[in-house]
Protein 1
Amino acid sequence: MSPRRRTSVPNQASGRSPKPLPQTSAGLPPALVTSIFDRLDAMHPDADTELVYRTPFELLAATILSAQCTDARVNSVTPALFAAYPDARALAAADSADLEPLVQPTGFFRMKARALSGMARALVAEHDGEVPASMEALVALPGVGRKTANVVLGHALGIPGLPVDRHVLRVANRIGLVHTDDAVRAEAALCALLPAERWTRASDTLILHGRRICKPKPLCDRCQLRPDCAYYAALSPAAPRTRRTGRS
Ligand code: SF4
């Protein structure tokens, strides 16, 4: 099996957006939203999760380990972890103390070892050792929040999901796609702006844009979104804009 894989999308019933929340998107014309995400795609054609995995179980474990840690560091520890514990049954049989040395480089290692152990035991007890393909079941697992669940749904299970991390929040707010620092509200707003089949890639491109260009100190001169970015417009009020009108 390929170390990274993107499976086909649909099953939109399971990949539905969060429950309705107060509208936080900017009421942008659909064609402009499409254009913004098309340009993000063009700027980051390689966008995908950078976590290396072979199965939904491995991606779930790797994503739990990625909290407050770089993907590269997670990828440095998961080969040994998955060699020793290749599936949920093997991991469930381990003591969390046995896992601690393996995950120590990812930080918060005692908490993460407990989360991995609890997650695996719940998979065995409640899902026959398999990763469930629904948001509700995933977030009921120990150590699994909405962001982790969306990563697994979108990348390993072929179900649309839009993970929101700090990069997604920063970039989406700067562009003006959302107006909130709340991850659940931002997820709902972004999902409302896009067809379900674009959710996962939208998150991947926003994350890469935040890492590479729209950093905390943004590199706007390298960004194709300047004409439609609220943050850039505020910095450069004389700049030509297509925002909202769709015209140059
Ligand atoms: S124009 Fe600047 S602030 Fe706007 S998305 Fe691009 S890099 Fe970020």
Protein 2
Amino acid sequence: MLLASLTTIQLGGNAKEYISCKTQDDITAALIYAKEKKLKIHVLGGGSNSIFADAGFDGLVIHIQTTGISAEKTDAAVYLTAQAGEPWDDVVQYAIKNNLTGIECLSGIPGSCGGTPFQNVGAYGQEVAQTISYVDVIDRNSLQNIRFTNDECNFGYRTSRFKVQDFNKYIILSVTFRLIPSGTPNIRYGELSSLVSETSSLQEIRDAVLQLRKKKSMLIDPADPNSISCGSFFTNPIISAAEFETVQKNISEEIPSYESAGDKKLSAAWLVEHAGFTKGTTRGNVGISEHHSLALVNNGGTTQALLQFANEIQTAVENKFNIKLVLEPLVIPS
Ligand SMILES: Cc1cc2nc3c(=O)[nH]c(=O)nc-3n(C[C@H](O)[C@H](O)[C@H](O)COP(=O)(O)OP(=O)(O)OC[C@H]3O[C@@H](n4cnc5c(N)ncnc54)[C@H](O)[C@@H]3O)c2cc1C
């Protein structure tokens, strides 16, 4: 199976073996098969935050394609459970159609539902950690089923236990969200609040988010070459107030920053631009999106070229600001 065909950045060679899992039993069977054959495993969801090597993957790619959404009503909330392989935006649309508040600002993010807890997906002032009630997983080694409550997921900015301490330990089977029927939407993000308000319908909020995302090529659109990406390529750095002071002292421009639990969150996009990389910069067949300075795009290039360009950006930002940008997508070694 050509992995480039399964990722939004359209990069990567062949997988040695590939199994598409449409049920939870398929997932268990794939894990047993990998153990018997002593194959290393990579778990793939929607492929929107994954970069495979040009040499491909010398093991088994387990593609999570389980589907199904169910909802259970209690007095104050609706618990919506979606199987891991459900396309994330279908989950958002289901919630909006049923007038369930809590994930509307996350409209249009590509990938699978199971991918969302991995890096605590977020956009326009919302992140899944705000509504996830629990996550059901299977232990890749013991095949035991485990439920993690929201607190146990260790969510943080673009992170969770699944990305850090339990990396490669579990397969996420389903995610349950606690949503509020006819709740008041929380419009926190400046750009969005100029288009909609708390009295807007969930559909109006979705439409506004999609409109903003389209302008930035942050919606997958086969007609838009700027959307052949992984979304943001670098996370926004978070540094202590003291570190920020030192960085700012050495730079004449005022560096924009936001408070984040006593620390300072910086805009990776601003740092990239001010290190000399404008939108539309290219290096051969890879480059920066013409519509978003944080999205690296592929226009017939290779993983090697993309990572070399990312490294060039990281080095320039580090040389100028003494800040190391961290990659948001997962780079999967062959
Ligand atoms: C155009 C574009 C816009 C984007 N905008 C945003 C945005 O606004 N906000 C944001 O946060 N992200 C954004 N992203 C990044 C990406 O869409 C999200 O991170 C998404 O949740 C990734 O899900 P996926 O299923 O595609 O994951 P994949 O790319 O398939 O996998 C990513 C990681 O998650 C793991 N994983 C996936 N599914 C499972 C599972 N079931 N069990 C265990 N591990 C699993 C994989 O092993 C891998 O380590 C964007 C990407 C693109 C291309």
